[in-house]
Amino acid sequence: MGDERDIPKARLRRALDARREAIAADEIARASRAICDRVGLLDEVREAAVVVLYAAHRSEIVPRSLEAIAEAGQAKAFYYPRVEGDDLCFRRSSFDDLVPGRYGIPEPPPEAAALSPEGARGIVVVPGIGFDRAGSRIGTGKGYYDRTLPRFPGLMRIGLALDGLVVDRLPTDPWDVPMHLVVTEHDLLVGDPVARWSAGDLPWR
């Protein structure tokens, strides 16, 4: 990942990131509330036993309110990503128990219980700099989610995005992991029925 072959993608990443960083904080806050409300209406979220969230960084959509929204359904176990080596480990935590981590992003403490890929069923919400209408995602270029998500085939992948950061089509590489759904403040986009599935995906309920 990240070699000379993805120069067009790197240019698009910079352009989308600049567009995102120009959005006012209050607009991101309003969009985050609308997006979380929309995600919380999904049957898959209400019925999920496992919910993997993230601590928003910079101008990402903030999913924190999904803890309270998702708890209105059946009992939930919440997990957050922790950077460990070149990958992410999803460790059990609430947002209030997160500690400062790599890149200045709050993450679970290292002693928190890790989510085992075997038998994990539920949802994982995924940040991104941009998405497209087929469910493709462009992130920071570090590849953490693309390396980690294939190990959790029983988690439904939901990308969170502002309307203005969804494009018609993104350039993709073989290692890019598509989303099953992309949720914006005004829309719910179902990923391409072929492209959104990765090898080994399982039913998430």
List keywords for this structure.
globular, 7-stranded mixed sheet, 205 residues, 10 strands, alpha/beta
Short recap of the structure:
By secondary structure, this protein is of the alpha/beta class.
Please explain how this structure is put together:
- The structure is a single chain.
- The chain starts with 6 loop residues before the first helix and ends in a 15-residue tail after the last strand.
- The longest helix is centred in the first third of the chain and has 16 residues.
- It contains five helices and ten strands; from the N terminus they run H-H-H-E-H-E-E-E-E-E-H-E-E-E-E.
- The protein has one domain: 3-Layer(aba) Sandwich (Rossmann fold).
CA(first)-CA(last) distance: 32 Å
Please identify the structural class as seen in this structure: alpha/beta
Proportion in β-strands: 15-25%
Q: Might you state the CATH topology name?
A: Rossmann fold
Query: What is the tally of beta strands?
Result: 10
Biggest pleated sheet? 7 strands, mixed
Q: Please estimate the helix content.
A: 10-25%
Rounded to an integer in angstroms, the radius of gyration calculated over CA atoms is 16 Å
CATH superfamily label: NagB/RpiA/CoA transferase-like
**Briefly, what CATH class?**
Alpha Beta
Can you tell me the overall shape? Answer: globular
| Second rung of CATH, namely the architecture | 3-Layer(aba) Sandwich
Average predicted local confidence, pLDDT: 88
The SSE order reads HHHEHEEEEEHEEEE
Widest beta sheet: strand line-up:
3-2-1-4-7-9-10
Low-confidence stretches: 1-5
Q: Write down the domain tally.
A: 1
What's the oligomerization state?
Answer: single chain
